[in-house]
Specification:
This protein is of the alpha/beta class. Helix content is about 40%, strand content about 15%. β5 (about 170-175), α7 (about 185-200) and β6 (about 200-205) form a beta-alpha-beta unit. The structure holds pyridoxal-5'-phosphate. Pyridoxal-5'-phosphate binds next to α4.
C-alpha cells in the first residue's frame, strides 16, 4: 500500500475519543456536544422535494461535468452573491460532492512532482485537516503558517522564507476561517494575490462558511479579484451547500475559478469517478436558487451567538467572530494553556464536549497556535447551546 498513508495524522475526533476514553461524566447532566461542526438545523423542504421529484435520475450515469442547469444556477448565485460578472457555467464551474472531496482531489490533480524539488502546499494553522492530508498524499510537503489573534487570525505570510515560497505550488486559505471565524479583508487578498503573482502558486480558497455571517456578507475570493481588477488566473474557490443549506448529507458543493485549472481538474475527476447524481444536482440547483432558507439559517445562528457570547465573554474570553458558527475560546489561566486538560475536565464535570484547539493545529515555528484554546461549534439547538454555555461558564469561573 501507498506508504504516504502512514503520514496521515489522526483526525481530531479520534484524538478526542482517546482523551475521553476513561472519563466518567455525571449521568444526571444531559450531554451537550459543541465539538463537531456538523450543521443540525433542519434541511429545507425544497431540497427534500427536489430529491423526491427526481428519483428518475437514478436510471442514468451522471456526467462528471454535471448538468447545465446546476452550473447555471451556481453561476447566477455567484454573480448575485458577489456582484461579479457571471462566471462561464461551461468552463469556470464544476459541481463536486461537497467541498471536502474537492479540496482533497484538487490537490491530487494540481501538484506537479516532476519539477526536481519537493513541492510545498501552504496551509493556515489552525486548519481543516483535509488540507494536510491532501498535501501529504499528493507527495507534497505541508507548510503551516500560524494564524494568531494579534494578526486578526490571518496567516502571517511575512514569516514564510523565500526558499519555501520558491517550492510552493498551492496555498490554502479559509475565509471565513474554521475555527477562528476570521474573514479576509480586501487588503489581505491584495497581499495574497501579489504573492501568488510573484511565486506562481495556485490559491485554493475554501469558502464553505461564506453564508453564515452576522453584519455583512464576507468578501469572497472571486469578488476580491474583481475589486482588485484581476482575472481568475491561478484562483479556485470551493463552496458548499452543507452549511449554507443545512444539507451535509447531500454532499454537494462546487469549485469555481480559473478555467484552465478546472479543465485539468475535470479530466482528473472523470478518472476519479466523482460525478454527482442527477437527483442531487436537481436538489442543489433548487437550493442555490433560494435565499429564504439561508436567511432563516443565518438568523438561527445569530440568535445563538447573541445568547452565548455574553454568557462566555468573561470566563472564556470569547467575542462574536466575523462569520461561521464557531467560538474560538480561551481556556482559563488555571489550565496553563492545556486545552486538552480543559476539554477533558469540562466533559467530566459539565458533560459538555468541546474540541481542544491544539488538535486543530500543528506545532509550527515554536508554538501550537491552537494551544490554550477550545473550539465551540454552535450547532446544537439554541436551548442546548445556552445550557452548555452556562455550565462551561460556571466551570471556567
Ligand atoms: C473549513 C472546512 N472546509 C470544508 C469542509 C467540508 O465541508 P463539505 O464537504 O460538507 O462541503 C468543512 C467541514 O466541516 C470545513 O470545516
Amino acid at each position: 500500500m501507498n506508504p504516504l498513508l502512514d503520514r496521515l495524522q489522526p483526525y481530531p475526533f479520534q484524538r478526542l475519543k482517546a482523551l475521553f476514553a476513561d472519563a466518567r461524566p455525571d449521568p444526571a447532566l444531559g450531554h451537550v456536544d459543541l465539538s463537531i461542526g456538523e450543521p443540525k438545523h433542519p434541511t429545507p423542504d425544497l431540497i427534500k422535494q427536489a430529491i423526491i421529484a427526481h428519483f428518475g435520475g437514478l436510471e442514468q450515469y451522471p456526467a462528471t461535468l454535471g448538468l447545465a442547469d446546476l452550473r447555471h444556477a451556481i453561476a447566477d448565485w455567484l454573480s448575485r452573491r458577489y456582484d461579479i460578472a457571471r462566471p462561464n457555467p461551461d468552463s469556470e464551474i464544476l459541481p463536486v460532492l461537497g467541498s471536502r472531496e474537492a479540496l482533497f482531489s484538487f490537490v491530487q490533480a494540481s501538484i506537479d512532482r516532476e519539477q526536481g524539488y519537493t513541492p510545498v502546499v501552504i496551509s493556515p494553522n489552525p486548519f481543516y485537516q483535509i488540507y494536510e492530508g491532501a498535501a501529504l498524499l499528493a507527495g507534497a510537503e505541508p507548510y503551516y503558517v500560524n494564524c494568531l489573534a494579534e494578526q486578526a487570525f490571518q496567516p502571517d505570510w511575512a514569516s514564510v522564507p523565500d526558499a519555501v515560497w520558491r517550492r510552493t505550488q498551492l496555498v490554502f486559505v479559509c475565509s471565513p476561517g474554521n475555527p477562528t471565524g476570521a474573514v479576509m479583508t480586501l487588503d489581505d487578498w491584495r497581499a495574497l494575490f501579489e504573492l501568488s503573482d510573484r511565486h506562481g502558486f495556485i490559491i485554493a480558497s475554501d469558502e464553505c462558511y461564506s453564508e453564515i455571517w452576522f453584519d455583512q456578507p464576507p468578501l469572497g475570493a472571486l469578488q476580491a479579484a474583481k475589486l482588485l481588477g484581476r482575472d481568475k488566473s491561478r484562483l479556485v474557490v470551493f463552496s458548499s451547500l452543507s452549511k449554507r443549506s443545512n444539507a451535509p448529507g447531500l454532499r454537494s458543493g462546487f469549485v469555481a475559478g480559473d478555467a484552465a485549472l478546472l479543465a485539468r481538474f475535470l479530466l482528473y475527476r472523470t478518472y476519479h469517478g466523482s460525478a454527482m447524481s442527477a437527483m442531487v444536482q436537481a436538489a442543489s440547483a433548487a437550493a442555490w436558487r433560494d435565499e429564504a432558507h439561508v436567511e432563516a439559517n443565518r438568523a438561527a445562528y445569530r440568535a445563538k451567538f447573541d445568547a452565548l457570547v455574553p454568557i462566555l465573554a468573561e470566563t472564556l474570553g470569547v467575542s462574536r467572530p466575523d462569520a461561521a458558527f464557531y467560538l474560538w475560546a480561551k481556556v482559563p489561566d488555571r489550565f496553563a494553556g492545556d486545552d486538552a486538560a480543559f476539554a477533558r475536565a469540562a466533559f467530566e464535570q459539565c458533560h459538555v464536549t468541546v474540541l481542544p484547539g491544539s488538535y486543530l493545529a500543528r506545532d509550527a515555528h515554536g508554538i501550537n497556535p491552537g494551544a490554550g484554546r477550545i473550539r465551540l461549534a454552535l450547532v446544537a439547538p439554541l436551548a442546548d447551546c445556552i445550557e452548555g454555555a452556562k455550565r462551561l461558564a460556571e466551570f471556567a469561573a
